[in-house]
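Summary: Need help interpreting a holo structure output

Steps to reproduce:
1. Submit the protein chain below together with the SMILES for fe (ii) ion.
2. Request a joint structure prediction with the ligand placed.
3. Inspect the structure token block that comes back.

Expected: a single structure record containing both the chain and the bound molecule.
Actual: see attached output.

Input attached:
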Amino acid sequence: METHEFEAIKELYNEGNDTVPAHSFDEHVLEVYENAKELLEGEDVDEEVVKYSALLHDVGRKFSREGGHAEKGAEVAENFLIGELEKEEELAKKVSECIRHHSNRPHLKPPTREAEILWAADKLHATGATGLFRFLLTMGAKDYSTEEAFEILRERVSDAEERAKEFGFEDLLSGLKSLKDFIEMYEEENYASN
Ligand SMILES: [Fe+2]
Ligand SMILES: [Fe+2]
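--- attached output ---
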């Protein structure tokens, strides 16, 4: 990827974006990009598709949430790659497909290995101590109650674990393990009978 393309994507992401710091370009997108590059190793996939997908995956966050940020981001990324970066339509469509399926919604299961890698790269940043920190900061900024946040975490961890096993991402499973330990600790403190 050329430097001017990287800069253009960063500008697109940042312009008018008031997302929480835990989802900023520097704090989140760059981490997902690095994760994606590591996950690419040894995989028989289109590297360009994964790299552009990683950098553009959350670009829909700053727009209206109708249909979700993944759907919006898929549309924005495709238009941007063709219109601004003058990329081939085929690449743009593959990137768009990865972005559309990067969230955890059950009906949005990643349809290609490239999309699975993007999903795992994004999820890796939501696991381990770092992921927990980011999750709590985000929930706090959105005014969720402790109980609501805990339920969301529990659900996300269980969905992600299922997929990580199915897709074969070992590192992700170990990141999820520490979240499971935390969930268990919380349950013991709060729901233990007698
Ligand atoms: Fe996202
Ligand atoms: Fe993300």
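--- end attachment ---

Reviewer comment: The chain has two domains: 1-108, 126-194. The chain has a mean pLDDT of 93.
Status: needs-info
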